[in-house]
Design brief:
Elements (H helix, E strand, L loop, with lengths): L1 E9 L5 E7 L2 E6 L6 E6 L5 E4 L1 E6 L12 H4 L5 E11 L3 H8 L5 E7 L19 H10 L4 E8 L1 H4 L5 H11 L6 E5 L6 H7 L5 E3 L18 H8 L3 E3 L9 H10 L12 H5 L6 H10 L4 H4 L5 H6 L16 E14 L5 E15 L2 E4 L4
Parallel strand pairs: 1-4, 6-7, 7-8, 8-9, 9-10, 10-11, 11-12
Antiparallel strand pairs: 1-2, 2-3, 5-13, 13-14, 14-15
The structure holds zinc ion.
Length: 370
């Protein structure tokens, strides 16, 4: 007898799918299973079963005053099983964040900001003395199951006069730790996007990839800058990181039409852009991507397998035996809704993506009034 049997579900392509779960792990996945279970969740062929959604750019250290939220406000109630906090904390306060985060029901991981206190102020990399390399190595050793990468925010408001120097230091730190993911935030120059991308390598994650700023991926004629194509082809991973200021429908549409595809869809959510928009949640960000022409089949890997691979979450992101029993079950329903990007651009959707159950570690949480 298994703990949980999810029956009569469907995949994004409409195929029948059933899943068995025991002790927090997936034990079987097939079109039809024959199992007895302590608990049965019958989806009546109405709902899509996905590997648990991973939002790889969020801010959820509650003790901050700039960008903060509670993991269980942006995770489970939003259909998100796993969040990766993108550098809210640095080596000095990530331990405290860990103590808080482990009480959450939502899975929480973190990228350690290269600045020692993280984003306590907007210009955390304006003073290079705040980059304490030895403290970062210590934190990585102390919290190996919590810290999944490092974060450097490379925009004028953050780095002050330091241009690309913080990124050079981040690359040095990364090289001393095998396979350590590095997420780089982009925004206004300096540093220019050109200089930033020149330092990035295959597997590094570029977040806020479709921002509408002058220092973004489009040139003055609205075409993708050649060095951006070069970076994309070198294997730099493009991450949405929607945020309050960093997602522009027009830029994203140009990229879609040109075939420059992001690897991961994330929100850059924190309490303010969750409560009053334009972000709201990951499902809304996915609805925005749908209006650009991405299919659900194309989008699901961007919130499951791709972020799991980018951040080496070996037992997450797939519906397969021995993987963690994290799942997002959602309905796709007809309904009109206006969607707004970070620059006031709007789109209309006729299709709503509504999570109805979030399953974390085999535990079922009904969401969305279900
Ligand atoms: Zn962010």
């Amino acid at each position: 007898m298994v703990d949980l049997y999810i029956k009569n579900g469907k995949s994004v392509t409409g195929k029948s799918i059933e899943v068995a779960i025991e002790a927090g792990k997936i034990t079987a996945v097939a079109e039809k299973l024959s199992v007895t279970a302590k608990k049965v969740l019958d989806l009546k062929h109405q709902s899509v079963v996905s590997a648990g959604w991973i939002d790889d750019h969020v801010h959820c250290y509650e003790k901050m005053t700039l960008y903060y939220d509670s993991p269980d406000a942006i995770g489970i109630p939003k259909g998100v099983t796993t969040v990766i906090d993108a550098g809210t904390t640095g080596a000095e306060n990530i331990g405290d964040f860990y103590q808080l985060a482990k009480k959450s029901k939502t899975n929480v991981y973190a990228l350690v900001n290269i600045s020692k206190w993280g984003i306590v102020e907007q210009d955390e990399l304006a003073d290079l003395k705040k980059i304490k390399e030895e403290l970062i190595h210590e934190a990585l050793q102390q919290y190996p199951d919590f810290i999944v990468g490092i974060k450097a925010r490379m925009s004028k408001t953050v780095v002050g006069e330091n241009d690309v120097v913080p990124l050079e230091l981040a690359k040095n730190i990364q090289k001393k730790n095998e396979n350590l993911p590095l997420m780089v935030h982009i925004g206004s120059a300096p540093p220019t996007l050109d200089e930033t991308l020149a330092l990035m390598e295959k597997g590094d994650i570029l977040t806020h990839c479709f921002n509408g700023k002058e220092n973004g991926i489009l040139d003055s004629e609205g075409r993708i800058k050649p060095f951006v194509w070069d970076a994309y082809r070198r294997g730099i991973l493009f991450d949405i990181g929607h945020g309050t200021d960093s997602f522009n429908f027009h830029v994203a549409q140009v990229a879609k039409e040109a075939g420059l595809t992001p690897q991961t869809v994330s929100t850059d959510i924190y309490h303010r852009n969750r409560e009053t928009g334009p972000v709201y949640d990951l499902a809304t960000t996915l609805e925005k991507m749908r209006t650009l022409g991405y299919t659900l089949e194309e989008l699901m890997p961007m919130v499951t397998t791709n972020p799991a691979r980018a951040f080496h979450l070996a037992t997450k992101g797939e519906l397969k035996p021995d993987f963690d029993a994290d799942m997002t079950i959602f309905n796709v329903v007809a309904g009109e809704k206006g969607l707004t990007d970070s620059n006031g651009g709007t789109r209309k959707t006729n299709e709503l993506i509504q999570p109805i159950y979030t399953i974390v570690n085999g535990e079922v949480y009904p969401v969305g009034g279900n």
